[in-house]
Amino acid sequence: MKLASSFIFVVALIIGCQSQPEKQNIPAPVVKKHFPNTLANKKFLTEGLIGLTTDKSDYLLNDSAVTVGWVGDIVNFVDSVHFESAYVAWCGNDCFTRVYGRYYFVDSLKVSFYTDSITLSGECEAPTEYTKTRPPLNLYLAETPEGRLQLNHNH
């Protein structure tokens, strides 16, 4: 009886300690030099979701504190590593897409975005898509002549 109880305990311990493969992050590339992160803890309105695709798109970053209205696409640089890009609206009758991922400054202007997952909710609810094999989206941080920030595909 004691042997059976010990066996069940060991099996439960092994099963309980296994990690969930879909929640593991892709390791980030090793950065040899630290570059200042000028985007951390900032939120912007955009025209498109960053990281949803790897298409060659450019993203104008409109300061969310200045822009009126909270309907549209946003990018939230949650901290110095994680970002969230999402469609937001004050009403709940819509399709809401949310991209979660990580970003790294490769040099002082080049930023690599790694999409970890894409979630659809609202009227288009679907299972979360985990994007383990997607290549990074490389964008260059630039300033428009009007002084606004932009993420471009070309340097």
Overall body shape: globular
Helix content class: 10-25%
Task: Please indicate the count of domains.
Answer: 1
Run of helices and strands: HEEEEEEEEE
Gyration radius, rounded: 20 Å
Mean model confidence by pLDDT: 80
Instruction: Give the percentage of residues in beta strands.
Output: 35-45%
The class by helix and strand makeup works out as mainly beta
> What's the total number of strands?
9
List the total number of helices: 1
Major sheet: order of its strands? Answer: 1-2-9-8-6-5-4-3
Structure report:
- This protein has 155 residues and is mainly β.
- The protein has one domain (35-152).
- Helix content is 10%, strand content 41%.
- The protein has one helix and nine strands; from the N terminus they run αβββββββββ.
- The protein has an eight-stranded antiparallel beta barrel with strand order 1-2-9-8-6-5-4-3.
- Strand 6 and strand 7 form a beta hairpin.
- The protein starts with a helix and ends with a strand.
- The relative contact order is 0.18.
- Residues 6-24 have low confidence and may be disordered.
